[in-house]
Amino acid sequence: EEGAPGRRGERERSEEPPVERGPGAAFHMFLLMEDLLDKLKLLSYEEEALRRHNMRPLSRHYFALPTNPGEQFFIFCTLAAWLISKAGHPFEQPQEYDDPNAVISNVLSELRSF
């Protein structure tokens, strides 16, 4: 077994201690959400996406905290569809009661085509 190629390296990697994250790691998602919101504002998402779909502006931490997963998923899909369309690929806006698996599959398929 020691001479088997790859076996020893795999064993060594699995025995490595888990990487310790610093005390700020818990707040990383909040920073990512703030960056996302800044980028959406640069793309005029409030005028182009929110008004068209009669949605309220997102808070700085909207996607960082799980408050209403159904609503958050729908808004995520709405923004994803808007961004895909803005990138020049026509994409049908998902409806609130569409199958979530089908919606995500369509979004991912379209992104892979980029």
Automatic annotation (TrEMBL):
Which Pfam families does its entry note? IFT57
Q: Where in the cell is it found?
A: Cell projection, Cilium
What segment(s) does the record annotate as region Disordered?
A: 1-23
Q: Cite the InterPro entries for this sequence.
A: Intra-flagellar_transport_57
Q: Where is the composition biased (Basic and acidic residues)?
A: 1-19
Key word Magnesium present in the record? no
Q: Which UniProt keywords apply?
A: Cell projection, Cilium
Per its record, how is this protein called by name?
Intraflagellar transport protein 57 homolog
Asked whether the keyword Membrane is assigned, the reply is no
